[in-house]
Amino acid sequence: MDAVRVHAHGGPEVLQVEEIAEPVCGPGELLIEAVATGVNFIDIYQRTGAYPMDLPYVVGSEGAGTVIAVGKSARTPCRPINGPSATEWPGRWLVGPGQHKW
């Protein structure tokens, strides 16, 4: 799937669209199909280096979607989920912790 990644701090010119592997749901995780993802001011601060991030990283830290797969021992809500996350929302899918309070 396509994702916008940052390999160096700077302006918008450091944003690169790259092909990344589609995530796979493991034990204790949920696979979420994104309905909407967002870019917020925190993403600008991270891109410019004002907020440190390990490089490279995928832009986007909030989103909403539907659980489409559940890993062993993961809890799943019976509804669409949303919310900011410490994980990246790279594109169409996200793997997140199954114990997270979505």
Can you describe this structure?
The chain is elongated. The longest helix is centred in the middle third of the chain and has 8 residues, at 41-48. The protein is built from one helix and seven strands, in the order βββαββββ. Helix content is 8%, strand content 39%. With 102 residues, the protein is mostly beta strands.
How are helices and strands ordered from N to C? EEEHEEEE
Counted beta strands: 7
Outline the biggest β-sheet.
4 strands, antiparallel
The secondary structure category is mainly beta
> What percent of the residues sit in helical stretches (DSSP H or I)?
under 10%
The average pLDDT is 78
Radius of gyration, rounded? 14 Å
List low-confidence stretches: none
As an assembly, this protein is single chain
Strand order of the largest sheet: 6-5-3-7
Q: What is the CA-CA span between the terminal residues?
A: 24 Å
* Helical run tally: 1
What share of the residues does DSSP label as strand, in percent?
A: 35-45%
Task: Please state the overall shape, judged from the principal axes of the Cα atoms.
Answer: elongated
Characteristics:
single chain, mainly beta, 4-stranded antiparallel sheet, 3-stranded antiparallel sheet, 7 strands, 8% helix
Task: Write the SSE topology.
Blueprint: E1 2-6, E2 15-19, E3 29-38, H1 41-48, E4 57-58, E5 62-70, E6 81-84, E7 93-97
Antiparallel strand pairs: 1-2, 1-4, 3-5, 3-7, 5-6
